[in-house]
Write a structure and sequence with these properties.
Elements lengths: L4 H8 L15 H8 L1 H26 L7 H22 L10 H22 L19 H20 L3 H12 L4 H8 L3 H21 L6 H7 L1
Helix pairs in contact: 2-3, 3-4, 3-5, 4-5, 7-9
Length: 227
Protein backbone atom coordinates (compact mmCIF):
# COMPACT_ATOMS: atom_id res chain seq x y z
CA UNK A 1 0.00 0.00 0.00
CA UNK A 2 1.61 3.33 -1.01
CA UNK A 3 2.23 5.87 1.72
CA UNK A 4 0.11 9.02 1.33
CA UNK A 5 2.10 11.91 -0.10
CA UNK A 6 1.69 14.06 3.02
CA UNK A 7 3.07 11.39 5.34
CA UNK A 8 5.82 10.39 2.91
CA UNK A 9 7.08 13.96 2.77
CA UNK A 10 7.12 14.13 6.55
CA UNK A 11 9.20 10.97 6.73
CA UNK A 12 11.69 11.98 4.04
CA UNK A 13 12.09 15.74 4.40
CA UNK A 14 15.18 16.97 6.27
CA UNK A 15 16.21 18.23 8.68
CA UNK A 16 13.97 16.40 11.15
CA UNK A 17 12.01 18.48 13.67
CA UNK A 18 13.68 18.81 17.06
CA UNK A 19 10.45 18.67 19.07
CA UNK A 20 10.78 16.21 21.95
CA UNK A 21 8.40 13.24 21.80
CA UNK A 22 7.98 11.21 25.01
CA UNK A 23 8.26 7.44 25.15
CA UNK A 24 4.87 5.84 25.53
CA UNK A 25 2.99 8.78 27.06
CA UNK A 26 -0.71 8.01 26.60
CA UNK A 27 -1.73 11.64 26.89
CA UNK A 28 1.02 13.49 25.03
CA UNK A 29 1.26 11.29 21.93
CA UNK A 30 -2.37 11.80 20.82
CA UNK A 31 -2.06 15.52 21.54
CA UNK A 32 0.98 15.75 19.27
CA UNK A 33 -0.89 14.10 16.40
CA UNK A 34 -3.66 16.67 16.80
CA UNK A 35 -1.32 19.64 17.14
CA UNK A 36 -0.05 19.88 13.58
CA UNK A 37 3.16 21.60 12.56
CA UNK A 38 6.60 20.52 13.83
CA UNK A 39 5.12 18.61 16.76
CA UNK A 40 3.02 16.47 14.43
CA UNK A 41 5.96 15.90 12.08
CA UNK A 42 8.17 14.79 14.96
CA UNK A 43 5.50 12.43 16.26
CA UNK A 44 5.06 10.84 12.81
CA UNK A 45 8.80 10.31 12.53
CA UNK A 46 8.98 8.70 15.95
CA UNK A 47 5.99 6.53 15.14
CA UNK A 48 7.58 5.38 11.88
CA UNK A 49 10.82 4.59 13.72
CA UNK A 50 8.84 2.49 16.18
CA UNK A 51 7.13 0.64 13.33
CA UNK A 52 10.50 0.00 11.68
CA UNK A 53 11.81 -1.49 14.92
CA UNK A 54 8.74 -3.71 15.25
CA UNK A 55 8.99 -4.81 11.62
CA UNK A 56 12.70 -5.65 11.97
CA UNK A 57 11.92 -7.74 15.04
CA UNK A 58 9.09 -9.66 13.37
CA UNK A 59 10.93 -10.27 10.10
CA UNK A 60 13.93 -11.62 12.04
CA UNK A 61 11.60 -13.84 14.06
CA UNK A 62 9.97 -15.23 10.91
CA UNK A 63 13.16 -15.37 8.83
CA UNK A 64 13.49 -19.19 9.04
CA UNK A 65 10.26 -19.39 7.02
CA UNK A 66 11.50 -17.04 4.31
CA UNK A 67 13.30 -18.25 1.20
CA UNK A 68 16.81 -16.94 0.65
CA UNK A 69 16.01 -13.45 -0.64
CA UNK A 70 19.01 -11.37 0.40
CA UNK A 71 19.46 -8.42 2.69
CA UNK A 72 18.18 -5.87 0.19
CA UNK A 73 14.81 -7.60 -0.13
CA UNK A 74 14.57 -7.99 3.65
CA UNK A 75 15.10 -4.24 4.02
CA UNK A 76 12.38 -3.64 1.44
CA UNK A 77 9.98 -5.88 3.38
CA UNK A 78 10.74 -4.03 6.61
CA UNK A 79 10.27 -0.62 4.98
CA UNK A 80 7.02 -1.62 3.29
CA UNK A 81 5.66 -3.03 6.54
CA UNK A 82 6.72 0.05 8.53
CA UNK A 83 5.14 2.40 5.99
CA UNK A 84 1.83 0.52 5.95
CA UNK A 85 1.79 0.15 9.73
CA UNK A 86 2.38 3.88 10.21
CA UNK A 87 -0.51 4.78 7.93
CA UNK A 88 -2.76 2.18 9.60
CA UNK A 89 -1.95 3.39 13.11
CA UNK A 90 -2.57 7.02 12.18
CA UNK A 91 -5.92 5.99 10.74
CA UNK A 92 -6.84 4.17 13.95
CA UNK A 93 -5.86 6.86 16.48
CA UNK A 94 -9.48 7.34 17.47
CA UNK A 95 -9.63 3.71 18.63
CA UNK A 96 -6.77 4.14 21.13
CA UNK A 97 -8.38 4.02 24.57
CA UNK A 98 -5.30 4.37 26.76
CA UNK A 99 -5.60 0.90 28.30
CA UNK A 100 -1.94 0.26 27.50
CA UNK A 101 1.06 2.43 26.69
CA UNK A 102 0.65 4.18 23.38
CA UNK A 103 3.89 2.70 22.05
CA UNK A 104 2.71 -0.79 23.04
CA UNK A 105 -0.56 -0.23 21.20
CA UNK A 106 1.23 1.11 18.12
CA UNK A 107 3.94 -1.58 18.13
CA UNK A 108 1.33 -4.21 17.37
CA UNK A 109 0.65 -2.58 14.00
CA UNK A 110 4.30 -3.04 13.03
CA UNK A 111 4.20 -6.70 14.04
CA UNK A 112 0.97 -7.31 12.12
CA UNK A 113 2.04 -5.67 8.87
CA UNK A 114 5.50 -7.25 8.97
CA UNK A 115 3.90 -10.67 9.38
CA UNK A 116 1.66 -9.99 6.39
CA UNK A 117 4.62 -8.93 4.24
CA UNK A 118 6.61 -12.03 5.18
CA UNK A 119 3.67 -14.30 4.31
CA UNK A 120 3.20 -12.57 0.96
CA UNK A 121 6.86 -13.17 0.13
CA UNK A 122 6.66 -16.80 1.23
CA UNK A 123 3.92 -17.40 -1.35
CA UNK A 124 5.06 -14.96 -4.04
CA UNK A 125 6.70 -17.60 -6.24
CA UNK A 126 4.74 -20.62 -5.06
CA UNK A 127 1.98 -22.05 -7.17
CA UNK A 128 -1.40 -22.05 -5.46
CA UNK A 129 -3.11 -25.31 -6.39
CA UNK A 130 -6.83 -24.61 -6.37
CA UNK A 131 -8.02 -27.75 -8.08
CA UNK A 132 -6.54 -30.91 -6.59
CA UNK A 133 -7.99 -32.26 -3.38
CA UNK A 134 -5.55 -33.32 -0.64
CA UNK A 135 -5.12 -36.84 0.61
CA UNK A 136 -6.41 -37.27 4.15
CA UNK A 137 -3.91 -38.90 6.51
CA UNK A 138 -3.55 -39.48 10.19
CA UNK A 139 -2.30 -41.69 13.02
CA UNK A 140 -4.54 -44.54 14.11
CA UNK A 141 -4.61 -46.66 17.24
CA UNK A 142 -6.61 -49.54 15.76
CA UNK A 143 -7.68 -51.03 12.41
CA UNK A 144 -11.25 -50.00 13.22
CA UNK A 145 -10.20 -46.39 13.67
CA UNK A 146 -8.30 -46.55 10.38
CA UNK A 147 -11.36 -47.81 8.54
CA UNK A 148 -13.57 -45.20 10.21
CA UNK A 149 -11.18 -42.43 9.21
CA UNK A 150 -11.01 -43.63 5.60
CA UNK A 151 -14.79 -43.74 5.38
CA UNK A 152 -15.07 -40.24 6.78
CA UNK A 153 -12.34 -38.98 4.42
CA UNK A 154 -14.25 -40.35 1.45
CA UNK A 155 -17.43 -38.70 2.74
CA UNK A 156 -15.68 -35.36 3.06
CA UNK A 157 -14.12 -35.64 -0.41
CA UNK A 158 -17.50 -36.52 -1.87
CA UNK A 159 -19.11 -33.58 -0.08
CA UNK A 160 -16.44 -31.19 -1.28
CA UNK A 161 -16.90 -32.42 -4.85
CA UNK A 162 -20.70 -32.57 -4.91
CA UNK A 163 -22.08 -30.23 -2.24
CA UNK A 164 -19.81 -27.22 -2.66
CA UNK A 165 -19.81 -24.99 -5.69
CA UNK A 166 -16.56 -24.92 -7.71
CA UNK A 167 -15.74 -21.52 -6.20
CA UNK A 168 -16.43 -22.70 -2.64
CA UNK A 169 -14.31 -25.79 -3.21
CA UNK A 170 -11.32 -23.81 -4.47
CA UNK A 171 -11.46 -21.37 -1.58
CA UNK A 172 -12.03 -24.01 1.11
CA UNK A 173 -9.19 -26.26 -0.06
CA UNK A 174 -6.76 -23.37 -0.45
CA UNK A 175 -7.47 -21.72 2.91
CA UNK A 176 -8.42 -24.62 5.18
CA UNK A 177 -6.24 -27.41 3.83
CA UNK A 178 -3.28 -25.95 1.98
CA UNK A 179 -2.88 -23.01 4.36
CA UNK A 180 -2.63 -20.33 1.68
CA UNK A 181 -2.62 -16.87 3.34
CA UNK A 182 -5.95 -15.18 2.74
CA UNK A 183 -4.32 -12.02 1.35
CA UNK A 184 -2.39 -14.07 -1.19
CA UNK A 185 -5.48 -16.00 -2.26
CA UNK A 186 -7.52 -12.81 -2.52
CA UNK A 187 -4.88 -11.33 -4.82
CA UNK A 188 -4.67 -14.47 -6.97
CA UNK A 189 -8.44 -14.71 -7.33
CA UNK A 190 -9.07 -10.99 -7.82
CA UNK A 191 -11.28 -10.64 -4.75
CA UNK A 192 -11.02 -9.43 -1.14
CA UNK A 193 -10.76 -10.87 2.37
CA UNK A 194 -14.40 -10.32 3.30
CA UNK A 195 -15.63 -12.16 0.23
CA UNK A 196 -13.36 -15.12 1.01
CA UNK A 197 -14.46 -15.22 4.66
CA UNK A 198 -18.08 -15.32 3.47
CA UNK A 199 -17.30 -18.13 1.04
CA UNK A 200 -15.58 -20.21 3.74
CA UNK A 201 -18.49 -19.67 6.14
CA UNK A 202 -20.97 -20.85 3.52
CA UNK A 203 -18.79 -23.83 2.56
CA UNK A 204 -18.50 -24.96 6.18
CA UNK A 205 -22.25 -24.67 6.65
CA UNK A 206 -22.88 -26.85 3.59
CA UNK A 207 -20.35 -29.46 4.71
CA UNK A 208 -21.79 -29.51 8.22
CA UNK A 209 -25.33 -30.04 6.93
CA UNK A 210 -24.25 -32.80 4.54
CA UNK A 211 -22.17 -34.68 7.13
CA UNK A 212 -24.94 -34.37 9.70
CA UNK A 213 -27.49 -35.83 7.29
CA UNK A 214 -25.07 -38.65 6.44
CA UNK A 215 -24.59 -39.50 10.12
CA UNK A 216 -20.93 -38.51 10.33
CA UNK A 217 -21.25 -35.26 12.22
CA UNK A 218 -20.58 -35.22 15.96
CA UNK A 219 -17.23 -37.01 16.12
CA UNK A 220 -13.92 -35.22 16.70
CA UNK A 221 -12.88 -35.50 13.06
CA UNK A 222 -16.11 -34.00 11.73
CA UNK A 223 -15.96 -31.20 14.27
CA UNK A 224 -12.43 -30.33 13.12
CA UNK A 225 -13.43 -30.11 9.46
CA UNK A 226 -16.66 -28.13 9.88
CA UNK A 227 -15.79 -25.71 12.69
Amino acid sequence: MPVPERIASQLLDSPAPTVSVPDGSNQVWPELFLAGGPAYDAAVRRLHALMTKAAHHQVAYMSPDLPVIGGVRVDEIVKQAADEATVAALGKLASFEGRSRFTTWAYKFGILYASNEVRRNMWRHREVNLDNLPEFAGAFTSPEQHVEHLEFARAVETAIETVLTPHQRKVAVALLVEGVPIDVLAERMGTNRNALYKTVFEARARLRAHLTAAGYFGGPIAEQVTS
